[in-house]
């Protein structure tokens, strides 16, 4: 049988998490918190179940949750989305990304992808018959050369995939980036998919520039969010998509046959939980403390790094310590010192290796300090 995704195997996240479990390593590879969700949120789910919310939810999502998301978006970004016609609840952000991409990409279309790129974008593009066109970003700051981007646009370009705050680099797009993107999209009539799942996790006073805030972009963009990252509930797999009515119609055509509906009691619980904004507005400080704690443990090491601007990932360069390929070193450090990471080369099409590892700091403080100490000690022995 001929594979439709011949270049896709088991994800690096699965591989490294499996290895970490096998050897008993501290798992700073896969991006999930090691701490529990708010007990109040758990109780809201239990209450929703007791109240009888246990059957299929409406295909677009529970109305009260769609209304809560619309209110939150309008409050934070000054953009109103109609709960009935422009907000859809999805089975996590991954489903939303797949539905958005496959809803609008036709065979032969070109899609701009900024790499290093999260691994779910390109398979969705290819399954739709599209062709990914890569904009490669380089350390240390992973800044965007918009002149290069403009050169890559052709009459076949249909879509741009944006991720801010950006996984795996931790970069937060600037207002200037958004204006450049808006001008590009308007000039070439491009659609946009905006992966904004880390919208509430950014540091040092940086602003999240949601594409919903820019009128030119709002009218042509699928804005995708996730409660998993925001509320430490990645296993719930609940996300959402904001899009203008015409795009939402096409999005829901795919969504209804991909997932149809999402866990009903959890939607009711989240709708109530969102009524207290401090439950997400306090996240920057919460995660900045964890970032800084992890970096403090690496302060005396021979690694080099720039503090991440957003997400709960920190990239660390080992250039100058060893010429070992990042994939091999990630495996070796998991086995030898018991700290698992992700090699950043896997996020590049050509496996470009800048000798950088990605660590997740959404972990308990004791784990972060222990992992940092082990890495620090290793770097001094090399």
UniProtKB/TrEMBL annotation:
The keyword Lipid metabolism does not apply. Gene3D superfamilies: Aspartate Aminotransferase, domain 1 (3.90.1150.10), Type I PLP-dependent aspartate aminotransferase-like (Major domain) (3.40.640.10). GO terms for molecular function: kynurenine-oxoglutarate transaminase activity; pyridoxal phosphate binding. GO terms for cellular component: cytoplasm. Keywords: Aminotransferase, Pyridoxal phosphate, Transferase. It comes from the Bacteria. Its cofactor is pyridoxal 5'-phosphate. SUPFAM superfamilies: PLP-dependent transferases. The keyword Transferase applies. Residues 26-371 form the Aminotransferase class I/classII large domain. Belongs to the class-I pyridoxal-phosphate-dependent aminotransferase family. This is Aminotransferase class I and II.
């Amino acid at each position: 049988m001929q594979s439709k995704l011949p270049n896709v195997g088991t994800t690096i996240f699965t591989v490294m998490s499996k290895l970490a479990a096998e050897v008993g390593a501290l798992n700073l590879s896969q991006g999930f918190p090691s701490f529990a969700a708010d007990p109040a949120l758990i109780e809201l789910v239990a209450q929703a179940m007791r109240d009888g919310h246990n059957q299929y939810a409406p295909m677009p999502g529970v109305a009260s949750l769609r209304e809560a998301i619309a209110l939150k978006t309008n409050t934070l970004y000054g953009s109103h989305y109609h709960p009935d016609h422009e907000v859809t609840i999805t089975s996590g952000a991954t489903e939303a990304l797949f539905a958005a991409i496959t809803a609008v990409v036709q065979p032969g279309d070109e899609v701009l992808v900024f790499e290093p790129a999260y691994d779910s974008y390109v398979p969705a593009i290819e399954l739709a018959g599209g062709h990914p066109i890569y904009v490669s970003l380089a350390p240390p700051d992973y800044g965007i050369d918009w002149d290069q981007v403009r050169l890559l646009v052709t009459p076949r370009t249909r879509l741009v995939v944006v991720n801010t705050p950006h996984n795996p680099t931790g970069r937060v797009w600037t207002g200037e980036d958004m204006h450049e993107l808006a001008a590009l999209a308007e000039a070439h009539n491009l659609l946009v998919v905006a992966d904004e799942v880390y919208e509430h996790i950014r540091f040092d006073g940086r602003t999240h520039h949601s594409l919903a805030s820019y009128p030119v972009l709002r009218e042509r963009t699928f804005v995708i969010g996730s409660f998993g990252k925001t509320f430490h509930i990645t296993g719930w797999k609940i996300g959402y998509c904001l899009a203008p009515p015409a795009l939402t119609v096409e999005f829901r055509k795919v969504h209804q046959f991909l997932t149809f509906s999402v866990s009903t009691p959890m939607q009711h619980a989240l709708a109530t939980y969102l009524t207290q904004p401090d439950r997400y507005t306090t996240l920057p400080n919460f995660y900045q403390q964890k970032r800084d704690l992890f970096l403090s443990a690496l302060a005396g090491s021979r690694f080099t790094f720039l503090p991440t601007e957003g997400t709960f990932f920190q990239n660390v360069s080992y250039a100058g310590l060893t010429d070992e390929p990042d994939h091999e070193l990630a495996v070796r450090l998991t086995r030898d010192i018991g700290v698992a990471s992700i090699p950043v080369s896997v996020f590049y099409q050509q496996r470009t290796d800048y000798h950088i590892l990605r660590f997740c700091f959404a972990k308990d403080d004791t784990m972060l300090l222990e992992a940092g100490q082990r890495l620090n000690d290793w770097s001094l022995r090399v």
